[in-house]
Design goal:
The structure is a single chain. The chain is an alpha/beta fold. Helix content is 34%, strand content 31%. It has seven helices and 15 strands. Helix 1 crosses helix 5.
Length: 236
């Protein structure tokens, strides 16, 4: 598991890296002194400990950049001022640590973060096997944007192609689990790819729009907010 520690105070960086290595010796812990340095590494991390107050790019700004390319990273903010935490939670932080960081609190938060990162890794590697007229193919669930029901067929819209197959939308919903939402009798959307929504439609990555049943709007908003606040983690 790859972990990043980002703090402009060397003492804090070394303290956190030591606690990480003591608690989980097989983890790869990398240290960065700024948000710019973290982003320049251009590497996806499973867990990032990120200081909020730093010179140059602060932790909030760096986290927003991270979220653009990696929605599965478990973000844990570090701050000496509790009020900053509320802004941090707006970008779906998993947890936060107040300075000075105690060993007991770090141990508790890190243990939960490791479990969460493991769940997200499992979700990221889920696959859907589909039989089409001419072939059997395996599709990575995280690459599915949405699934559309057309007569007795389904059209699986992925980031690369549209796959048509004879299947029931309800059965695919059961297989894919809670990170997919049945927004309409004819549509199943991957919440990881939702870009925006209105009372009657959802826009997905790439610009495609699908219908949202108005009577399900309230349920959808609650489900989607829960999904985001938990870092996109749902049981399979």
């Amino acid at each position: 598991m790859d972990i990043a520690v980002v703090d402009d105070e060397k003492v804090i960086r070394e303290q956190l890296r030591e606690m990480i290595e003591n608690q989980k010796p097989d983890c790869n812990a990398a240290c960065f002194s700024s948000g710019e340095e973290l982003l320049a590494a251009a590497k996806p991390f499973d867990i990032i400990f990120l200081d909020i107050q730093m010179d140059g790019m602060n932790g909030i700004e760096a986290a927003k950049e991270v979220r653009e390319t990696n929605t599965d990273t478990v973000l844990i903010f570090i701050t000496g001022i509790k009020e900053y935490v509320f802004e941090a939670l707006d970008i779906y932080a998993f947890h936060y640590l107040l300075k000075p960081v105690t060993k007991q609190k770090f141990t508790e938060v890190f243990e939960e973060a490791l479990k969460e990162a493991g769940l997200r890794h499992m979700r990221r590697n889920r696959q859907l096997f589909i039989n089409t007229r001419n072939r059997g193919i395996t599709i990575d669930a995280d690459k599915i944007l949405y699934i559309e029901s057309v007569s007795r067929k389904v059209k699986i819209h992925t980031m690369q192609e549209i796959v048509e197959a004879y299947a029931a939308l309800g059965e695919l919903e059961r297989q894919l689990g809670g990170s997919f939402y049945r927004c309409h009798r004819g549509y199943l959307v991957n919440m990881a790819h939702i870009r925006e929504y209105k009372s009657d439609c959802i826009t997905l990555t790439g610009g495609d729009t699908v219908y949202l049943t108005k009577k399900k709007y309230g349920e959808f908003v609650n489900t989607y907010m829960w999904y985001l606040q938990n870092g996109g983690a749902f049981s399979v």
